[in-house]
Amino acid sequence: MKRYTLIGGKLGHSLSPQIHERLFKLRGREASYGLTELSDDELTLNIGKLRELDGFNVTIPHKLRVMYFMSELDRSAELYGAVNCVANREGRLIGYNTDCDGFLESVDAMGAKLSGKVLLIGCGGVGRMIAIASALRGAELTVQILESDRDLALSVVSEIEKHAPGAKVRLVTSEEEHGEHYDLLVNATPVGMFPKADACPVSADIIGRSDAVFDVIYNPLETQLIKQARALGKPAENGMAMLVWQAVSAHRIWDGDEYTREEIRGVIDEVSKLI
């Protein structure tokens, strides 16, 4: 039986075992998937034990530090500067980043146009990754930021220019965003997450001018942003889809397994009931 785990800080609320167990079951694979809480010091002490596994996933706070223990980094890990998936190839640890795959697959599955005009709210953490991925897909990208985040945003723009020369990117504050139509609206901020679930990161006017909406938040499953978009009849997806699709990418890496969108929709719906 193959063995996998998720390493991270506090993992008490993680849904990763339930997601991966369903994916293994769909392909009839006998495998176990656990949770391993590690501090920074414990990561160094336990890397030998991790080498005994067939692979593992990585979450905060270890996505950067774990890179130093890799025998090789996939281009995805180099591009996004973080590792969240590791494959053990005969003792050699290969680091990947499947967070981006989770976002891209989610957007594709909902039929949204990532190569068109995209409004991204926030550019820290996952927002940075989404900004780079969108630019590489050919998006005409508008990033709405707080003025206090301008330096961070400018560093993201520099990264985009490095990886996607000629990409169209502009930074705006909420006061500077004026009446444009967007093919896709993406929220990459915590606005709308518990305990402030009544908040919405953008105005109803912006939602109305967007053809599709994606929110990285999955607790609650239906944020105010998602609720308003669906009320207008627009395709809208939450972060649970991204969480499941990045797990699918890990299974491709580990075992070469592929899944249909219908199968993954089923997993998303099943795991969503656990929230």
Explain this structure:
This protein is α/β, with parallel strands linked by helices. It folds into two domains: 128 residues, 3-Layer(aba) Sandwich (Rossmann fold), CATH 3.40.50.10860; 123 residues, Rossmann fold. Helix content is 39%, strand content 20%. It contains ten helices and twelve strands. The strands form two sheets. The chain has a six-stranded mixed sheet with strand order 2-1-3-5-6-4. A six-stranded parallel sheet has the order 9-8-7-10-11-12, sandwiched between helices. α1 crosses α9 and α4 crosses α5. It starts with a strand and ends with a helix.
Can I get a quick summary?
The chain is of the alpha/beta class and about 280 residues long. It has helices at about 15-25, 40-50, 75-80, 100-110, 125-135, 150-165, 205-210, 225-230, 240-255, 260-270, and strands at about 1-10, 30-35, 55-60, 70-75, 85-90, 90-95, 115-120, 140-145, 170, 185, 215, 235.
Please tell me how large the radius of gyration is. 19 Å
Question: What is the end-to-end distance?
Answer: 29 Å
Main structural class: alpha/beta
Residue windows where pLDDT falls under 50 for at least 5 positions: none
The count of domains is 2
What spatial form do the alpha-carbon principal axes imply? globular
SSE diagram, text form:
Elements: E1 2-8, H1 16-26, E2 31-37, H2 40-50, E3 55-58, E4 72-73, H3 75-80, E5 85-89, E6 92-96, H4 99-109, E7 117-121, H5 126-136, E8 140-144, H6 150-163, E9 168-172, E10 184-187, H7 204-208, E11 213-215, H8 224-231, E12 236-237, H9 239-255, H10 261-272
Parallel strand pairs: 1-2, 1-3, 4-6, 7-8, 7-10, 8-9, 10-11, 11-12
Antiparallel strand pairs: 3-5, 5-6
Helix pairs in contact: 1-9, 1-10, 4-5, 4-9, 5-6, 9-10
